[in-house]
Specification:
The protein is mainly beta and 666 residues long. The protein contains one helix and 39 strands. The protein is elongated.
Length: 666
């Protein structure tokens, strides 16, 4: 006897709820005719007498009001793909009619049902973010980025969260207050200091080239920074060096006005030059004559019966009247006195040579030192020789410094013969302790012949021992050489320690003063433009981000330590080091690409007097293969004409940490 059941296939029609029933032979699911045969969930026949009349949600059978084995109906919801009658039969709460039966569907973000991990209908969780008013669990569930008390709301600048356009919590982005130093930013306008570097707001300083703090003009004015120069903006007199803030601008000692503490137009006071005769004055110090009489500068002289014109006493002493003060007159220095002896502010006589600075006392008066008085005095190294005034001393004479000696060798206070270890260029040496009979000089020292050098003598400069020549001479005469050194032995000074920081825009430039005169391809320059894309330019427009091999047809008179498409973002410093005539102008670039945050690190140095150019490379790897090692860069120098250029490399990975390049000017 077979069991026949009547199948009632329920079709969900949301507008009316229609259901239809059809008959069919469906095995254990059919109504009974003949002997009863029942199968379990795997299709195995079992005795109908063994089927419990009571439903169980874990018996491995479909019974009771279950829609699939042990799920649906009053049991737990069914997984996707199993049978169902209504949505509550499914874990996704979505039951769709497929043929004659309903099937549970997978939850989606477009099924019109709150399911899956959604926090509101078809949004939140793993779905798209929810609009305002929707339910939420955290800020990420909301388009606004703000989940407050379980509901999505508009962000605000006081909600304690970073949301909306904010670059950090409740600040930045243009709508909220600007962020303080140390908070995150994407541009200068996000910061209260107007300075964003390395994605964080930087501390405001008086040398950051930005008007911030309480400055009235860039890096000056206010209570924090130094007063401003003429023509710069101000609010009060104290903002100005001249002490005069007029119509929002600082007055000056050349503005044609009597401003600040000037006693007359553009003169007198603490800032301006002293006033001339007949110009107004308040005190003697306002006058060039050092004599203010009845409010006017008077022409004091050394016979007017008055103490003026910087005299130390009436009509004597001082720079104008000189050594004219008698014994007992006021004095400041020996040179104010006829006796050349000033003791405790009064002119005095001498009785012995030791009373006199120059050890020469004659008829009660000190006599100034000369190079023919047979006395070692003044700053002489020995009797009538050496020092700043007399001729150099011969061998064996006493000395205080090498310059006192004809041999330029002062050892143990005695002028000695020149040697190759005396730290002076003397004898037949071409540089300090080298050349001539002292042996070869190292690279970049002076020479006359190849025998003066460890390498070769090129236009008076040794080259080729440690720095290998890489180019033939260009039409002007420059030659280049290259060496690889330990990074900590690279000879370029570091302007990032105490130099001036530049915050250039992408592809930007700024002209700065070198601090000395530098000769490049025959032309003398005192300024240079520092380029964001890794170059220095003496003339012309800003250099483009796309490099060109040399000779460039677009640019001239430039130096390219690593010309490429860089972004310096404030990681750029310059400084002039040393004293004349051996000063160095250095620029350190630490740029990055648009693709990664890793930075390169290289420095270019211009040398006073020798006019040599140096490149030092600390790091040339930014982890972008098309950039690393100079693969897409140009390295070299170029003058005005196409023949005036020396190229080290172009679009070639030719440098690494410790690379050193030098261009020698004949």
């Amino acid at each position: 006897m077979r069991l026949f059941f009547r199948l009632c296939a329920v079709t969900h029609v949301f507008m009316g709820g229609v259901a239809s029933c059809t008959s069919g032979s469906l095995g254990a699911d059919s109504s009974m005719e003949g002997d009863a045969q029942v199968t379990d969930g795997s299709g195995t026949q079992i005795d109908a007498s063994e089927v419990s009349s009571e439903q169980s949600c874990s018996d491995g059978l479909r019974n009771g009001d279950e829609t699939s084995i042990d799920c649906g109906g009053s049991c737990q919801p069914c997984m996707s793909g199993l049978r169902c009658n209504i949505g509550s039969d499914c874990t996704s709460a979505v039951c769709e009619l497929r043929g004659l039966m309903g099937v549970c569907l997978v939850a989606t973000c477009q099924d019109g049902v709150l399911n899956g991990g959604e926090t509101s209908l078809d949004c939140g969780g793993n779905c798209t973010q929810c609009p305002n008013g929707s339910l939420c669990v955290n800020h990420w569930d909301c388009r606004s980025g703000q989940c407050l008390s379980g509901v999505c709301n508009d962000p605000s600048c006081v909600d304690g969260s970073q949301n909306g356009y904010e670059t950090d919590v409740d600040c930045g982005g243009g709508l909220c207050p600007k962020c303080p130093a140390g908070e995150r930013c994407t541009e200068d306008d996000d910061c209260a200091t107007s300075s964003c570097g390395f994605m964080f707001c930087l501390e405001a300083t008086c040398d950051d080239l930005i008007q911030n703090q309480d400055e009235t003009s860039t890096d000056c004015g206010g209570v924090t920074c130094d007063p401003c120069g003429s023509g710069l903006a101000c609010l009060v007199d104290g903002d100005c060096l001249s002490g005069s803030c007029l119509a929002g601008g600082c007055g000056s000692c050349g503005d044609g006005l009597q401003t600040g503490d000037e006693s007359d137009v553009d003169c007198g006071g603490q800032q301006c030059e002293r006033c001339l005769v007949d110009e107004r004055c308040v005190e003697d110090g306002d006058c060039e004559s050092d004599y203010c009489l009845a409010g006017l500068c008077s022409s004091g002289n050394c016979s007017d019966g008055s103490r003026n014109n910087r005299e130390t006493d009436i009509d004597c002493g001082g720079p104008a009247c000189g050594a004219t003060c008698s014994i007992g007159n006021d004095c400041i220095r020996d040179q104010d006195c006829i006796s050349l002896r000033c003791v405790d502010g009064f002119c005095d006589s001498c009785s012995a040579p030791t009373d006199c600075a120059d050890f020469n006392c004659s008829a009660g008066a000190c006599v100034a030192a000369t190079c023919m008085d047979a006395i070692q005095n003044g700053n002489e190294g020995d009797v009538d020789c050496g020092g700043s005034e007399c001729a150099s001393c011969a061998l064996g004479a006493s000395c205080n410094a090498p310059d006192d000696c004809q041999s330029l060798n002062c050892s143990g206070g005695i002028c000695g013969s020149p040697s190759c270890t005396d730290g002076r260029q003397n004898g037949e040496e071409t540089d300090i302790d080298c050349g001539g009979s002292c042996g070869g000089c190292s690279d970049f020292l002076h020479c006359s012949l190849d025998s003066d050098c460890d390498g070769s003598c090129y236009s008076g400069i040794c080259i080729g021992s440690t720095c290998s020549e890489f180019s033939t001479t260009d039409t002007f005469g420059y030659v280049g050489c290259q060496a690889t050194l330990p990074v900590d032995e690279l000879p370029c000074p570091d302007p990032a320690v105490s130099g001036t920081r530049l915050n250039l825009s992408d592809n930007g430039q700024m002209e700065v003063d070198l601090g000395f005169r530098f000769r490049f391809y025959g032309t003398v320059y005192q300024t240079v433009s520092i380029e964001d894309n890794g170059a220095l330019m003496f003339t012309g427009n800003s250099i483009a981000r796309f490099n060109q091999c040399l000779p460039s047809g677009s640019y001239s008179n430039f130096i390219a330590p690593l010309w490429d498409d860089w972004v310096t973002s404030g990681a750029l410093h310059y400084e002039t080091f040393g004293t004349a005539p051996n000063r160095k102008f250095a620029v350190r670039f630490e740029p990055q690409t648009f693709f990664v945050s890793n930075r390169a690190d290289f420095t270019v140095v211009l040398n006073e007097t020798s006019n040599h150019i140096e490149f030092c490379y600390v790091d040339t790897t930014v982890n972008v293969s098309s950039f690393d090692g100079g693969r897409s860069a140009t390295i070299g120098i170029q003058g005005e004409s196409s023949g005036e250029h020396v190229e080290f490399s172009c679009d070639t990975p030719s440098i690494g940490p410790g690379s050193y390049i030098r261009f020698v000017l004949p």
